[in-house]
Design a protein that fits this description.
Blueprint: E1 3-4, H1 15-23, H2 35-48, E2 52-56, H3 59-70, E3 76-80, H4 84-87, H5 92-95, E4 100-104, H6 114-120, E5 131-137, H7 147-161, E6 164-169, H8 172-179, H9 183-187, E7 192-196, E8 207-211, H10 213-225, H11 234-246, H12 251-267, E9 271-272, E10 281-285, H13 288-300, E11 303-304, E12 306-307, E13 313-317, H14 324-336
Helix pairs in contact: 1-11, 2-11, 3-10, 12-14
């Protein structure tokens, strides 16, 4: 059996989730007739403490729709240089939305330096692409972003400069569980939040975009234009609902297993980023040659890791399909690995 630690997107729907999907009451969601989609959206709105939510096919489309709903063509928005929105969404907001991203290099702790954010805000002036939005990400490479920082930066850019603030919360449930903080407390500083159901929560497909009623109605129009108006999508929403009901608290198991594995790796002399796991992720830093060899050897042992992301690091991601038995297999493989 293959142990896949490349990402938390690789999970299989369990039998009970498949049952929930097969039994789901459905209707045409473009007519807002799908009771299961409506239920998922209500639940997501409640959990995030926002007025409304919209079921999205992917996190990428969810972030894109958020930017399109917040910004006009010709606006600029501030975003982390290594944020998913800037690095891994194919420049969609520029290509399809005519917006100009202004990337800022993150601090070590994943925050954007406040003075740089403020200095990057362009006012309305014929020379500039006026800045109307700030996008942050939590967790960022698995790292939980300080809530006090988010409250300060969001309040400052909103009150002083009239910006909107969007959170890419693909893994916000991991942050919530890791810090024992209610999700809605983590979303409170923001106008809009995108949450992935298909990462650690374990749904096969889907994200939810949350915000106020007016924002969500604009988002719905953009989603339709982008081809994301789905029909009997309650079959998919049922999986998302199942996750929200059963898979949030169990994220702690992934974090605990990540900690256990990180400790083993450190004891074996591997250089683990920050000397600890980042929620459900571990990053090993070393030379390219060493990491490629490690990656290839593990692959031949049917253990898949992720090499080639940020810098010289190899990423290991824990998720619901990695049991204690799987973890032990991985630990044994590292114990017997010959570095030279
Ligand atoms: C996975 C991810 C997304 C987008 O998810 P897709 O559903 O794969 O489009 C957005 N932001 C972050 C931080 C992610 O990890």
């Amino acid at each position: 059996m293959i142990i896949d630690l490349r990402s938390d997107t690789v999970t299989q729907p369990c039998e009970k989730m498949r049952q929930a999907m097969s039994m789901a009451k459905v209707g045409d969601d473009v007519y807002e007739d799908d009771p299961t989609v409506n239920l998922l959206q209500e639940k997501a709105a409640t959990l995030s403490g926002k007025e409304a939510a919209l079921f999205m096919p992917t996190g990428t489309q969810s972030n894109l729709v958020a930017i399109l709903a917040h910004c006009q063509r010709g606006d600029s928005f501030i975003v982390g240089e290594h944020a998913h929105i800037y690095q891994y969404e194919a420049g969609g907001s520029a290509v399809l939305g005519g917006t100009l991203p202004k990337p800022i290099i993150e601090n070590e702790d994943g925050t954007l330096p406040l003075e740089k954010v403020l200095a990057s805000i362009k006012p309305k002036d014929i020379h500039f692409a006026p800045t109307t939005l700030l996008c942050l990400e939590n967790t960022f490479n698995g790292k939980v972003i300080d809530l006090g920082y988010q409250e300060t930066v969001c309040q400052t850019v909103r009150k002083k400069h009239g910006l909107k603030v969007h959170l890419d919360g693909a893994r916000l449930f991991n942050a919530s569980i890791a810090t024992n903080t209610e999700l809605k407390k983590l979303t409170a500083p923001y106008d809009s939040v995108s949450l992935c159901l298909s990462k650690g929560l374990g749904a096969p497909v889907g994200s939810v975009l949350c915000g106020n009623t007016d924002f969500i109605s604009r988002a719905k129009a953009w989603r339709k234009m982008l081809g994301g108006g789905m029909r009997q999508s309650g079959v998919l929403a049922a999986a998302g609902l199942f996750c929200l009901e059963h898979n949030i608290n169990r994220l702690k198991e992934d974090h605990d297993r990540a900690s256990t594995l990180a400790e083993c790796l450190i004891n074996l002399g591997w250089q683990v980023k920050d000397n600890q796991a980042q929620t459900n992720m571990i990053f090993i830093n070393d030379s390219e040659q060493t990491l490629i060899k490690l990656n290839e050897t593990m692959k031949s042992n049917k253990i898949l890791l992720s090499y080639g992301g940020a810098g010289n690091s190899l990423r290991i991601v824990l998720h619901k399909d990695i049991t204690d038995e799987g973890l032990n297999t991985v630990i044994n493989a590292f114990n017997t690995y010959q570095r030279n």
